[in-house]
Amino acid sequence: MKKYLFILRNAPHNGCHAQEMLDIILTTAAFDQPVSLLLLDEAVFQLKKNQQATAQGYKETAAIFKALEIYDVNEIYVETESLQEYGLSSSDLLLPVTACFRKEIATLMKNYDLVFSG
Known about the structure:
alpha/beta
């Protein structure tokens, strides 16, 4: 069985990109494939608590992120430097995450058979 890592880099509510990536992630996980996520750059805001997507005219993705556990997507990584850059900590996020330093990401990626970046 192949292990999948999905890397998200875009801010939430920036078009339909986040929704499309989440659809791909959930579809992959629904077929009992091991799936993990890595959030870099502005993507750390995708897990930020108390967002108001509807005010911006976009779909709310928080419920989809919360559903990841149902699909056994439990390994969610965030880049420590991205959190720091935007003044966030893991307690500001909807889900439990594993923070990793930028220098550790290449090693992390080697643990996966397929890496998708969006």
